Known about the structure:
It is a single chain. By secondary structure, the chain is α/β, with parallel strands linked by helices. It contains 17 helices and 16 strands. Helix 1 links the parallel strand 2 and strand 3. The longest helix is centred in the last third of the chain and has 28 residues. Belongs to the anaerobic coproporphyrinogen-III oxidase family. HemW subfamily.
Amino acid sequence: MARCLRPLFQRSGLMCPRTQPGELARVHSSQKQNPPDSEQTSLYIHWPFCLKRCSYCNFNKYIPRSVDNEVMTECLQQETRTLLQLSRVSQISSVFFGGGTPSLARASTVAAVLETVSAHARLCEHAEVTLEVNPAPAGRTALPDFLSAGVNRFSVGVQALNEASLRVLGRDHDPQQALQTLEEARTLCPGRVSVDVMFGIPGQSVASWESELEEVLRVCDDHVSLYQLTLERGTHLYKQVQQGEVSMPSDDVTASMYRSARKILEQAGFLQYEVSNFARQNAVSTHNLGYWRAQPYIGVGPGAHGRFVPRALGVAHREARTQTLEPDYWMREVQQHGHATRRRIQLSQLGLLEEVLVMGLRLTDGISHQHWAAFSPEADLHQVLGASADIQELQQRGILILDDRGLRCSWEGLALLDSILPVLLLELDTFFHTDMQMDRERSENP
């Protein structure tokens, strides 16, 4: 298997394959059933509005002249209520308010959504309720109100503590404001504040990145998320790079940045538990762990994604769901139909196992045999992957481990995950369809 392995550090999300609006698609259709989903799920709430668009961002966000907070709140409550009723889940394990810039929402909106959750499902005791915070003055001054509304964890999007980097990124805060926001968040939620920082920014060197990370560690709490800046088509930064106004660091430089960051964080007492996430004092993000462990979750708000079984519709399989993107259309559909689900894609066993692999291998612990068996009781990891010459080569190179504990990447392999995954997914697909062919032959020749 002679192939170049490339590094992976950026954000990861599961995207739905394209279908027409309202269409229910069947992906990797088979007769085998998905494992029953838990009566417990997590909830993601998307607030799509921002004051300005950062130069690198291609997320689903909007810069409106004004926001009708009352209508937006009512629609978030209505869609939450409808999707909880569709799922028939009995309890919510965590809630995450993301965006966009959810710290621009009113605290009363957050409180109203949480009240709706509690009215239709039990919000677990000590459930993690996270709010993404933009470290501009408006976000900082609202933190006490969000705490009173029910938020108990803040994720602060510092991104950089360097003036030049913040200008390149198009951020609307300065280093001092970021430090003040972190201090306020730590005072309100000690031990439950995460900080997002980026590397691979134009003009950034390995030495300047290490210095900046050291400064972050002097002021941060117990959770750090590292993200490599990625160049996305259609963004202002993409145009700047195309026109030669700025240049991105090379792959070798960003790989060195990631390696040094992992070592610096380890020396500071942080344990890496996922490709981009580090925690000490066991301050891991339980909400994001649910994604990486392929647990069900409900997505509410414009453009939100979800993975759950809509039991109220008589459906037995997990669906991948996407809500209408544009806020005005989303609100109109919610007012008319109770929700604005634009796409529903029924996941078969193979589709679900692909997600288990893609998300689970982001974790340093990887995928245990017990976890895999919950989704694939008929074929274990050794049966699916153990006989592959390509997988054996990855093991011999020391970047992939398949043993009695399960499947995981080595320290070196975790940085190469985006090149390892296609090999694993091909083997999974080959095994699955070979197994299906054998089942057909047995049924035709009893």
